Amino acid sequence: MSTNKAAEASIELAGLIDHTVLKPDASRADVARHCDEALEHGFASVCVNGVHAGFVAQRLKNSAVMTCAVLGFPLGASGAESKALEAAALVKAGADELDMVLDIGALREGDLARVEADIRAVREACHGKVLKVILETALLNDAQKETACRIAAEVGADFVKTSTGFSTGGATIDDVKLMRRIVGDKLGVKASGGIRDAQTAVAMVEAGANRIGASASVAIVSGASDAPAGY
User: Fold this and answer.
1) pLDDT score of 171 more than 60
2) Is the domain 3-222 a CATH 3.20.20.70 member?
3) Among candidates 50, 95, 44, 51, which has minimal Cα distance to 70?
4) Is 177 a catalytic residue?
């Protein structure tokens, strides 16, 4: 591949990446650096814990980079009412996109009404902002993944997302293909968790992902081989 084509491919990939800083010990300086990197490289968003949402929204103001915040994170077990309140607060703080963890326990035990109510509460509370539903695929069988995708689509989510990056596994090619097969072209698919190089990121896109969640975003677009571990 020529230098120009490689650069174009890097820019195109950058526009699909949610530049992520979700570690519990992340400082405001860490978050500021991620914002500056996102502006420099043209990432889709900066994805943070809710405590940083307002700061990120201000730092990215008047740019094309969006503010993405997680909720019900990372366990998904805070309940629909709490998640709805959290969603409303994040929107008020300036979040453009919300990544929620669904009620994993309810899904695994087959309480689909609770799963639907959980997602619907957030959908209604986020007032049209982009909603991504995190399935935590490492904890689910294929039938449960398919069910979660269908419920997310029925409730009006904008994306389904593989993983939090804090469980027993991250994104896999097979899971991305499954999710894309179920949602078709109606929803986006976000691959996240364990994506630390361009080759893996491109493979996820080829499998059907149209958004990538990564903390190693700069390494991914620069082709570096020393990407840091972790989300």
Assistant:
1) yes
2) yes
3) 50
4) no
Query: What are 155's two structure tokens?
Result: 């409730």
d(CA 69, CA 90): 7
Q: Which of 83, 129, 145, 190 is catalytic?
A: 190
Asked about 5 being catalytic, the answer comes back as no
pLDDT at 3: 43
Residue 46 near residue 55 (C-beta atoms within 8 A) = no
What region does 36 belong to: left with phi over 0, alpha with psi -120 to 50, or beta?
A: alpha
Active site residue 23: no
164/112 Cα distance (integer angstroms): 21
Buried b or exposed e, range 101-125, using 16+ CB within 10 angstroms: bbbbebbeeeeeebbbbbbbbbbeb
Given 99, 118, 158, 175, which residue is catalytic? 99
Residue boundaries of the structural domains of the chain: 3-222
Tell me which of 83, 145, 161, 175 is the catalytic residue. Answer: 161
The pLDDT value given to residue 1: 47
Q: How far is CA 104 from CA 47, 133, 150, in A?
A: 21, 11, 15
Token output for 153: 């689509």
Whole-angstrom distance, CA of residue 152 vs CA of residue 82: 19
CA gap 231, 35 in Å, rounded:
16
- Rounded average pLDDT over 78-92: 98
Residue 76 has pLDDT above 70, yes or no: yes
Which of 170, 169, 182, 226 is CA-nearest to residue 208? 182
